[in-house]
Amino acid sequence: MKTNVISRSLHDVGLSAWFGGTLANAVALNRAASAASDARSTGAVSNAGWDAWTPVNAVAIGAHLVGSVGQLLGNRQRIAGQQGVGTMSVVKTVVTVAALGATGYSRVLGRKVSDHGAVPAASGTEPAASTPPEVAKAQEQLQTLQWVIPALTGALLVISSFAGEQQRPTSVLSGVTDRLGIGR
After folding, report:
1. Span 15-37, pLDDT tens digits
2. Which domain of life is it from (predicted)?
3. Interatomic CA distance for residues 14 and 63, integer angstroms
């Protein structure tokens, strides 16, 4: 019996870290940075936290993508033969691309903030009155993206749960018979 334990594990662990890490940073790190002793330290703390998370996040995303490709290859017969699996795979791919785009753009903005060093800030994603305008603009965009990324990766977790349900024997049977037109 052939299993996809390695690709499924890479997929799930990578996605879990991507989701959980970005959610934790949005909920905790950006807000906690505002507890620094002054506005300039707030920016430095937030930058240090996000810069430390970036390589971990990159590994998590890479693991998820490698696992996703393994899952596609391991399930290619189901994708072609079971009604609904192909559509789920397309939706999941579109959401993954959106999450990658949001994450990539977030990193570009984060680098823009980090490259300015210890600039004054109210929190990790809220500029202070004295924040340089280009940094303030990036922080304002990051304020939205910090929630978009966990929303998209959370959606991927839900889609993955749905995909798991599609692998139940009764779902496989009805999906194949529906595809063949004999289940109606």
Report:
1. 999 999 999 988 998 788 888 88
2. Bacteria
3. 5
